[in-house]
Amino acid sequence: MALRSSRTVTRTGIRLTFNLFVSFLTVAVFLLLALPSLYTSSADPSDLGVEITRDFRGVGSLRRSVLALKSDPLKPRLDQIKKQADDHRSLVLAYASYARKLKLENSKLVRVFAELSRNFSDLISKPSYRTLFDSDGNSMNESVLRQFEKEVKERIKATRQIVAEAKESFDNQLKIQKLKDTIFAVNEQLMKAKKQGAFSSLIAAKSIPKSVHCLAMRLMDERITHPDKYTDDGKPTPPEFEDPSLYHYAIFSDNVLAASVVVNSAVKNSNDPSKHVFHVVTDKMNLGAMQVMFKMKEYNGAFIEVKAVEDYKFLNSSYVPVLKQLESAKLQQFYFENKLENATKDTTNMKFRNPKYLSILNHIRFYLPELYPKLHRILFLDDDIVVQKDLTGLWKIDMDGKVNGAVETCFGSFHRYAQYMNFSHPLIKSKFNPKACAWAYGMNFFDLDAWRREELTEEYHYWQTLNENRTLWKLGTLPPGLITFYSTTKPLDKSWHVLGLGYNPSISMEEINNAAVVHFNGNMKPWLDIAMAQFRPLWTKYVDYENEYVQGCNFGF
């Protein structure tokens, strides 16, 4: 009984203790939640010792003072504004640099970008705004920050507007620059192609077509097979070869077919072939072929003399400057080194690198009075011409004491002496007029008596010797001819000699048909595959297709 009473008392004590704990916990929670509310709603501000203004600014100042205990919310805002200013400053600097790189013709845009960049720097450096960056964050003035933000935004707006306007200009400039680069690259390729084309054209012009080589070989074979039939050894020289009363022509060539076309065309178009004498001079290698070619056919009574240049013993290196100069190793290298990289170094003189320009066959024209001492007048013809009319009218022209009758080629500022000679050389400058009109080789009527009187062969020797190092004129025979016959040339009517059929496709057929002589000067010779199709028939109609050796060599004209 006593035990039961004791257990009852214990349980009652435990229950009472638990109830007291719960009540205490409830009161504690209530006080914790209710006290702040009671404090802010019922407490008198005077009791707290704080004077609170009831407007917005006062509330904001109080709240900022409380938050400033941890951090100032205006500091991140200031950092963001400064970052935007720095970013746009970098942007305008980049655009200014790019504008300079593009080398804009109008530098105003570059100055605008530079000014914008300085504006951003000056704005940040203003004393009134430096306090924003120098403050510790507790004393930052929001009104100053707002003014700073306003000015930054105004500059950013102006910057973006100018950048937007400049972008289109930059894009155009970039396109123009790319176009210029492309044009430059294409021009470089074009110049390289022109050099290679000029070199290829030079090779083509120097080459001998297979058919022409075939003809020379077959004729030479005939000459070797029947030596007695074609030789002139031991025979007296026909008096017509030295008769000054006849019409004499000089043809210097190593091309059998070309020389035969010149003679065929002149004979066919002459009024009385029996009064015409043709003096054909070639080299020793082609002499036999030439002899056979001109002995196989009758030329309506015309006389044809065929000789080798080696037969004229006075033409040697001790007398002829060109032959002496050919002994120079440097000159041989210049002419005979045909590597592309070397041949295209001097594009101006590339076409004159042809060894034919130092060939004695090409310079023998300066020795006409000595080659034909008994003649008074002679007509020189190149082997790339075609005679279309009777030429005896040339012998009736009054030469007025002049030596060389030739057609002038100048028009405007073209084909003047200045284009053929080096007028920076004091000797050339003192002796010749750079505006003097040039004339053409190909058909030249020479008064040999006047030539001898003027001693022009000696004059040629003097100038050719001075030009050993090629400092006075370009290579070839025209410049020394212009010098030798300076002031001693009589201009002929242009209808006597029409040039350019070997390079100029725009020559009118009316002009060609009215010409006494047409000249295929240039690289596109009529016997080459590169000849101009519209002019080739003028030459091919005088090819002797009845000749058995011509028929056997497959000329595809």
From TrEMBL:
GO terms for cellular component: Golgi membrane. SUPFAM superfamilies: Nucleotide-diphospho-sugar transferases. The keyword RNA-binding does not apply. One of its GO terms (molecular function) is glycosyltransferase activity. It is found in: Golgi apparatus membrane. InterPro entries: GAUT, Glyco_trans_8, Nucleotide-diphossugar_trans. Pathway: Glycan metabolism; pectin biosynthesis. Residues 149-196 form a coiled coil. Its EC number is 2.4.1.-. It holds the Pfam family Glyco_transf_8. Keywords: Cell wall biogenesis/degradation, Coiled coil, Glycosyltransferase, Golgi apparatus, Transferase. Its main location: Golgi. It is a single-pass type II membrane protein. It comes from the Eukaryota. GO terms for biological process: cell wall organization. Belongs to the glycosyltransferase 8 family. This is Hexosyltransferase.
